[in-house]
Amino acid sequence: MEWYRKYQKELTPSLVSLFNDVREGAPLPDSMRRAMIIVLPKPGKDPRECASYRPISLMNCDAKILAKILARRLNQVITQLIEIDQSGFIPTRTTDINIRRLYTNLSVTHDNAGSRVIATLDNEKAFDSVEWAYLWATLQSMGFKENFTKWIQALYRDPEATIRTNQNISLPFALQRGTRQGCPLSPLLFAIAMEPLATLIRQSPRIGGLKLGGVTVKISLFADDTLLYLANPGIELNIALDIINKHTNYSGLKINWSKSAVFPIDPQPLPPPQLPGGLQWTEEFKYLGIKIQRNIHKFVEP
Protein backbone atom coordinates (compact mmCIF):
# COMPACT_ATOMS: atom_id res chain seq x y z
CA MET A 1 0.00 0.00 0.00
CA GLU A 2 3.01 2.33 0.39
CA TRP A 3 3.29 2.44 -3.41
CA TYR A 4 -0.31 3.67 -3.63
CA ARG A 5 0.38 6.38 -1.07
CA LYS A 6 3.49 7.54 -2.88
CA TYR A 7 1.74 7.78 -6.25
CA GLN A 8 -1.78 8.59 -5.11
CA LYS A 9 -1.95 11.77 -7.20
CA GLU A 10 -1.30 9.79 -10.37
CA LEU A 11 -3.38 6.73 -9.43
CA THR A 12 -6.50 8.33 -7.92
CA PRO A 13 -8.17 9.42 -11.20
CA SER A 14 -7.86 5.91 -12.67
CA LEU A 15 -9.18 4.27 -9.51
CA VAL A 16 -12.13 6.68 -9.26
CA SER A 17 -13.01 5.98 -12.89
CA LEU A 18 -12.77 2.23 -12.30
CA PHE A 19 -14.90 2.30 -9.14
CA ASN A 20 -17.59 4.40 -10.83
CA ASP A 21 -17.66 2.00 -13.80
CA VAL A 22 -18.10 -0.89 -11.36
CA ARG A 23 -21.04 0.88 -9.72
CA GLU A 24 -22.66 1.18 -13.16
CA GLY A 25 -22.37 -2.56 -13.71
CA ALA A 26 -18.94 -3.08 -15.25
CA PRO A 27 -17.32 -6.32 -14.05
CA LEU A 28 -14.28 -6.22 -11.84
CA PRO A 29 -10.99 -7.03 -13.58
CA ASP A 30 -9.90 -10.62 -12.99
CA SER A 31 -7.07 -9.46 -10.73
CA MET A 32 -9.57 -7.72 -8.41
CA ARG A 33 -11.83 -10.78 -8.21
CA ARG A 34 -9.08 -13.10 -7.04
CA ALA A 35 -7.57 -13.43 -3.57
CA MET A 36 -4.87 -15.66 -2.14
CA ILE A 37 -5.84 -17.46 1.05
CA ILE A 38 -3.16 -18.13 3.63
CA VAL A 39 -3.80 -20.11 6.80
CA LEU A 40 -2.67 -19.01 10.26
CA PRO A 41 -2.47 -21.50 13.15
CA LYS A 42 -4.88 -20.91 16.02
CA PRO A 43 -3.09 -20.71 19.39
CA GLY A 44 -3.19 -23.92 21.41
CA LYS A 45 -4.80 -26.00 18.65
CA ASP A 46 -3.59 -29.31 17.20
CA PRO A 47 -1.61 -28.37 14.05
CA ARG A 48 -2.58 -31.70 12.45
CA GLU A 49 -6.25 -30.67 12.28
CA CYS A 50 -7.58 -28.50 9.43
CA ALA A 51 -9.91 -26.73 11.88
CA SER A 52 -6.83 -25.50 13.78
CA TYR A 53 -6.06 -22.91 11.11
CA ARG A 54 -7.68 -19.56 10.35
CA PRO A 55 -8.00 -18.63 6.66
CA ILE A 56 -7.01 -15.05 5.78
CA SER A 57 -7.65 -13.63 2.30
CA LEU A 58 -4.85 -11.55 0.79
CA MET A 59 -6.83 -9.34 -1.56
CA ASN A 60 -5.83 -7.31 -4.58
CA CYS A 61 -4.91 -3.80 -3.37
CA ASP A 62 -7.35 -2.05 -5.75
CA ALA A 63 -10.19 -4.20 -4.38
CA LYS A 64 -9.03 -3.57 -0.83
CA ILE A 65 -9.06 0.20 -1.39
CA LEU A 66 -12.65 0.02 -2.65
CA ALA A 67 -13.63 -2.17 0.31
CA LYS A 68 -11.99 0.28 2.74
CA ILE A 69 -13.87 3.23 1.21
CA LEU A 70 -17.17 1.35 1.56
CA ALA A 71 -16.30 0.31 5.13
CA ARG A 72 -15.66 3.94 6.11
CA ARG A 73 -19.00 4.99 4.68
CA LEU A 74 -20.75 2.10 6.41
CA ASN A 75 -19.10 3.01 9.72
CA GLN A 76 -20.90 6.37 9.62
CA VAL A 77 -24.31 4.69 10.00
CA ILE A 78 -23.62 1.23 11.44
CA THR A 79 -24.33 2.24 15.06
CA GLN A 80 -27.83 3.33 14.00
CA LEU A 81 -28.50 -0.09 12.43
CA ILE A 82 -26.91 -2.51 14.90
CA GLU A 83 -28.25 -2.56 18.46
CA ILE A 84 -25.93 -2.13 21.43
CA ASP A 85 -26.17 -5.89 22.10
CA GLN A 86 -23.60 -6.34 19.30
CA SER A 87 -20.21 -4.82 20.06
CA GLY A 88 -17.93 -6.69 17.64
CA PHE A 89 -16.12 -4.37 15.19
CA ILE A 90 -18.66 -1.57 15.72
CA PRO A 91 -17.12 1.92 16.21
CA THR A 92 -16.97 3.10 19.86
CA ARG A 93 -18.00 -0.37 21.13
CA THR A 94 -15.58 -2.74 22.85
CA THR A 95 -15.53 -6.06 24.66
CA ASP A 96 -15.99 -4.11 27.91
CA ILE A 97 -19.71 -3.84 27.12
CA ASN A 98 -20.11 -7.61 26.89
CA ILE A 99 -17.93 -8.42 29.89
CA ARG A 100 -19.62 -5.86 32.14
CA ARG A 101 -23.07 -7.07 31.09
CA LEU A 102 -22.06 -10.65 31.84
CA TYR A 103 -20.57 -9.66 35.21
CA THR A 104 -23.73 -7.75 36.12
CA ASN A 105 -26.02 -10.64 35.20
CA LEU A 106 -23.95 -13.01 37.32
CA SER A 107 -23.80 -10.71 40.35
CA VAL A 108 -27.34 -9.29 40.68
CA THR A 109 -30.64 -10.89 41.67
CA HIS A 110 -33.04 -10.34 38.77
CA ASP A 111 -36.77 -9.83 39.18
CA ASN A 112 -37.32 -13.27 37.62
CA ALA A 113 -34.47 -15.16 39.31
CA GLY A 114 -34.75 -18.84 40.18
CA SER A 115 -33.80 -20.87 37.10
CA ARG A 116 -31.59 -18.42 35.21
CA VAL A 117 -29.07 -19.72 32.68
CA ILE A 118 -26.68 -18.44 30.03
CA ALA A 119 -26.52 -20.31 26.72
CA THR A 120 -23.11 -19.81 25.12
CA LEU A 121 -23.33 -20.51 21.38
CA ASP A 122 -20.48 -21.27 19.00
CA ASN A 123 -20.98 -20.51 15.32
CA GLU A 124 -19.62 -23.02 12.84
CA LYS A 125 -17.26 -21.40 10.29
CA ALA A 126 -19.21 -18.21 10.78
CA PHE A 127 -17.60 -15.77 8.34
CA ASP A 128 -17.36 -18.45 5.65
CA SER A 129 -21.03 -19.45 5.84
CA VAL A 130 -23.03 -16.29 5.08
CA GLU A 131 -25.31 -16.72 2.06
CA TRP A 132 -24.98 -13.73 -0.25
CA ALA A 133 -28.65 -13.62 -1.27
CA TYR A 134 -29.55 -13.34 2.41
CA LEU A 135 -26.96 -10.60 2.92
CA TRP A 136 -28.27 -8.55 -0.04
CA ALA A 137 -31.85 -8.91 1.24
CA THR A 138 -30.74 -7.78 4.71
CA LEU A 139 -28.97 -4.71 3.33
CA GLN A 140 -32.09 -3.82 1.37
CA SER A 141 -34.33 -4.25 4.42
CA MET A 142 -32.05 -1.90 6.38
CA GLY A 143 -32.61 0.82 3.79
CA PHE A 144 -29.34 0.82 1.85
CA LYS A 145 -29.74 2.34 -1.59
CA GLU A 146 -28.96 0.48 -4.80
CA ASN A 147 -25.95 2.67 -5.66
CA PHE A 148 -24.20 1.59 -2.46
CA THR A 149 -25.13 -2.10 -2.55
CA LYS A 150 -23.99 -2.37 -6.20
CA TRP A 151 -20.43 -1.69 -5.08
CA ILE A 152 -20.61 -4.34 -2.37
CA GLN A 153 -22.20 -6.87 -4.70
CA ALA A 154 -19.49 -6.20 -7.29
CA LEU A 155 -16.84 -7.33 -4.79
CA TYR A 156 -18.76 -10.61 -4.40
CA ARG A 157 -19.59 -11.20 -8.07
CA ASP A 158 -17.77 -14.31 -9.35
CA PRO A 159 -14.91 -14.11 -6.83
CA GLU A 160 -12.10 -16.65 -6.93
CA ALA A 161 -9.35 -17.68 -4.57
CA THR A 162 -6.20 -19.72 -4.45
CA ILE A 163 -4.73 -21.28 -1.31
CA ARG A 164 -1.07 -20.99 -0.39
CA THR A 165 0.27 -23.77 1.80
CA ASN A 166 3.97 -23.51 2.53
CA GLN A 167 5.39 -22.72 -0.94
CA ASN A 168 2.56 -24.36 -2.89
CA ILE A 169 -0.29 -22.39 -4.48
CA SER A 170 -3.47 -24.15 -5.54
CA LEU A 171 -5.40 -23.67 -8.76
CA PRO A 172 -8.08 -20.95 -8.49
CA PHE A 173 -11.56 -21.99 -7.40
CA ALA A 174 -14.89 -20.16 -7.21
CA LEU A 175 -16.27 -18.78 -3.94
CA GLN A 176 -20.02 -19.13 -3.45
CA ARG A 177 -20.71 -17.79 0.04
CA GLY A 178 -19.08 -16.13 3.03
CA THR A 179 -17.39 -12.83 3.85
CA ARG A 180 -13.62 -12.78 3.41
CA GLN A 181 -11.50 -12.61 6.53
CA GLY A 182 -8.92 -10.00 5.62
CA CYS A 183 -11.36 -7.70 3.81
CA PRO A 184 -11.95 -4.31 5.55
CA LEU A 185 -15.67 -4.58 4.80
CA SER A 186 -16.13 -8.15 6.05
CA PRO A 187 -16.60 -7.55 9.82
CA LEU A 188 -19.32 -4.95 9.22
CA LEU A 189 -21.13 -7.14 6.71
CA PHE A 190 -21.03 -10.00 9.21
CA ALA A 191 -22.50 -7.81 11.96
CA ILE A 192 -25.30 -6.90 9.55
CA ALA A 193 -25.86 -10.59 8.78
CA MET A 194 -26.17 -11.40 12.50
CA GLU A 195 -28.56 -8.56 13.33
CA PRO A 196 -31.81 -10.16 12.03
CA LEU A 197 -31.24 -13.15 14.33
CA ALA A 198 -30.56 -10.87 17.29
CA THR A 199 -33.72 -8.91 16.46
CA LEU A 200 -35.83 -12.09 16.35
CA ILE A 201 -34.53 -13.06 19.81
CA ARG A 202 -35.08 -9.58 21.26
CA GLN A 203 -38.60 -9.23 19.88
CA SER A 204 -39.85 -12.72 20.70
CA PRO A 205 -42.61 -12.34 23.33
CA ARG A 206 -42.02 -15.96 24.37
CA ILE A 207 -38.42 -15.30 25.41
CA GLY A 208 -38.53 -13.32 28.64
CA GLY A 209 -34.81 -12.85 29.18
CA LEU A 210 -33.48 -11.50 32.48
CA LYS A 211 -35.35 -8.56 34.01
CA LEU A 212 -34.15 -5.99 36.51
CA GLY A 213 -35.71 -2.61 37.24
CA GLY A 214 -37.53 -2.35 33.95
CA VAL A 215 -34.51 -3.44 31.88
CA THR A 216 -34.60 -6.74 29.97
CA VAL A 217 -31.51 -8.52 28.64
CA LYS A 218 -31.87 -11.44 26.24
CA ILE A 219 -28.78 -11.57 24.02
CA SER A 220 -25.19 -10.34 23.85
CA LEU A 221 -22.91 -10.63 20.83
CA PHE A 222 -19.32 -9.97 19.88
CA ALA A 223 -19.27 -10.73 16.15
CA ASP A 224 -20.35 -14.41 16.14
CA ASP A 225 -19.76 -15.08 19.87
CA THR A 226 -23.30 -15.24 21.21
CA LEU A 227 -24.72 -15.39 24.74
CA LEU A 228 -28.42 -15.92 25.44
CA TYR A 229 -29.75 -14.88 28.86
CA LEU A 230 -32.78 -16.97 29.83
CA ALA A 231 -34.90 -17.05 33.00
CA ASN A 232 -37.05 -20.06 32.11
CA PRO A 233 -34.78 -22.39 30.12
CA GLY A 234 -37.27 -25.25 30.04
CA ILE A 235 -39.44 -23.19 27.68
CA GLU A 236 -37.27 -20.35 26.37
CA LEU A 237 -34.37 -22.51 25.24
CA ASN A 238 -36.55 -24.54 22.86
CA ILE A 239 -38.07 -21.34 21.46
CA ALA A 240 -34.62 -19.77 20.94
CA LEU A 241 -33.29 -22.89 19.21
CA ASP A 242 -36.29 -22.95 16.90
CA ILE A 243 -35.65 -19.31 15.94
CA ILE A 244 -31.96 -20.03 15.37
CA ASN A 245 -32.63 -23.10 13.20
CA LYS A 246 -35.10 -21.20 11.02
CA HIS A 247 -32.60 -18.36 10.66
CA THR A 248 -29.96 -20.90 9.57
CA ASN A 249 -32.14 -21.96 6.64
CA TYR A 250 -32.01 -18.43 5.22
CA SER A 251 -28.64 -17.10 6.31
CA GLY A 252 -26.34 -20.12 6.15
CA LEU A 253 -25.10 -19.25 9.65
CA LYS A 254 -25.06 -22.44 11.68
CA ILE A 255 -24.55 -23.12 15.38
CA ASN A 256 -21.99 -25.77 16.28
CA TRP A 257 -24.02 -27.48 18.99
CA SER A 258 -21.15 -29.74 20.06
CA LYS A 259 -19.16 -26.64 21.11
CA SER A 260 -22.12 -24.80 22.64
CA ALA A 261 -23.26 -25.19 26.24
CA VAL A 262 -25.64 -23.96 28.94
CA PHE A 263 -24.24 -22.37 32.09
CA PRO A 264 -26.47 -22.15 35.19
CA ILE A 265 -26.58 -18.84 37.05
CA ASP A 266 -28.99 -20.31 39.63
CA PRO A 267 -28.58 -23.83 41.06
CA GLN A 268 -30.48 -26.34 38.94
CA PRO A 269 -32.45 -29.35 40.24
CA LEU A 270 -30.60 -32.64 40.57
CA PRO A 271 -30.29 -34.35 38.24
CA PRO A 272 -30.35 -31.30 35.92
CA PRO A 273 -32.95 -31.46 33.16
CA GLN A 274 -31.94 -32.77 29.75
CA LEU A 275 -31.24 -30.01 27.27
CA PRO A 276 -32.51 -29.81 23.67
CA GLY A 277 -30.38 -29.84 20.54
CA GLY A 278 -27.60 -31.94 22.06
CA LEU A 279 -26.58 -29.09 24.38
CA GLN A 280 -24.71 -29.94 27.57
CA TRP A 281 -24.52 -28.26 30.97
CA THR A 282 -21.23 -26.67 31.96
CA GLU A 283 -19.90 -25.17 35.19
CA GLU A 284 -17.50 -22.86 33.37
CA PHE A 285 -16.92 -21.48 29.89
CA LYS A 286 -14.50 -19.20 28.13
CA TYR A 287 -15.85 -15.92 26.81
CA LEU A 288 -13.72 -13.32 25.01
CA GLY A 289 -10.60 -14.82 26.54
CA ILE A 290 -11.93 -14.96 30.13
CA LYS A 291 -12.81 -18.17 31.96
CA ILE A 292 -16.29 -17.63 33.42
CA GLN A 293 -17.50 -19.32 36.63
CA ARG A 294 -20.41 -18.69 38.99
CA ASN A 295 -18.02 -17.38 41.63
CA ILE A 296 -17.37 -14.01 40.02
CA HIS A 297 -14.46 -13.28 42.37
CA LYS A 298 -12.44 -15.94 40.52
CA PHE A 299 -12.25 -13.74 37.43
CA VAL A 300 -13.06 -10.23 38.73
CA GLU A 301 -11.23 -8.47 41.55
CA PRO A 302 -13.65 -6.91 44.09
UniProtKB/TrEMBL annotation:
Source domain of life: Eukaryota
Tell me where in this chain the Reverse transcriptase domain is found.
Answer: 21-292
Q: Which CDD domains match?
A: RT_nLTR_like
Q: Name one Pfam family in it.
A: RVT_1
Q: What is this protein called?
A: Reverse transcriptase domain-containing protein
The protein's organism comes out as: Xenopus tropicalis (Western clawed frog)
